[in-house]
Amino acid sequence: MSDKAAVYRSLVSVIKQIGVLEERNLVPTRIYGESDNRFLTLSSCLCGAPAVVEKSDTQHYTSHCTGCSTAAAPSTTALEAAIAWNLSPNTNRADYRSSPWFGIVHLTPAAAWYRLRLIEADLNLRVQRVRLELELGQQATWAHYRKLRNYWLLCRYLIEVIQLPQPPLHSKSLTHPREATTK
């Protein structure tokens, strides 16, 4: 019983943290995009050939170049394999402005990074909440958990793509996303 009580206390804590983000208006959106978040376009290899993601065995996916056979580390999902490939030094770096997620297409790198960091904090808590609800046997579903986790992974990926130094969120050097757009 104490394990369930600890999980319940953790859930209450996470719900309170989500409430704090909402009260402080630190959740820019929960509409993440219309595109399927289980798939990510693979960047081409530096050799110029396209890459593919394949299921290598019953539990792992691998992304690799079809030309030179360079490969990224095996991953447990196809999305994680695609992210590992796209972030590897053997690929042409993707442009965050081509992302169909999170409404960052027209933002400057700093504004996109700021927006993504706020979304990441919210998604992290929401993933935790669903996982804890699942542990308690509440009405959460594994499909919802996977969907939120995929958005969290994509958010983390895009933060890496932008490659800004990581100043604190309250830094005066960051422009609010509503004010900073590219033309």
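Above is the first protein from milestone M3; the second protein from the same milestone is given next.
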Amino acid sequence: MPTKPKRIRRNLKTSLKIQVVCEGDTEYSYLYSILKGLSNVEVYSINGGGYGKFSNHIEKNSSLYSIFLVVVDLDKAQNRDSECKLLNRLIKDLDLLDRRNCIFLNGPDIEYWIACCIGNPNDTLTELSKLGYVKGNTVNTFLNNQHGSIDIAKQHVNSTRIYYSKPNVDCKYGLYKEFLNERQSTLGNLLPYIEELNKS
């Protein structure tokens, strides 16, 4: 009597495909260096533009990725009401696409986070430049030379008086207009957020 063919056991647990979408070379270089060990995470730069360019990219690629995490500067929204409306639309669209999507804002820009990484949260681009900082793909060299780290940044960054708050994967986001113009960053929450996504 013929034997039944054995069923091949399949690993049913699937890995989320996560795309971290950022603005430019500085963000891409920094994010790639901290996320390169995560096989289910891709970092993509939209190479400048506004909040609408993020929305267009996500809309075009929504079938390719399970989750989108956006890392973007707040400066445009801080300076123009029309840009703030575009940012709010991006936030709403991300949430409607999947509640687990999230945005990580740097206000006014990524340089605030870089300054926090070296323990100088009040430094602007001007002060950072005097220390040897150059926007672009040399950001990690600068941070290494200055002994910068995420742990140092977390000690100095304003991550409580923030415009956009989403403390964990399953919760609804909140917007706090009174904090729009604060120097702020939630980038220190990116790795824990990805770890939480990968556990769910």
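Note on the second protein: The longest strand covers residues 67-73.
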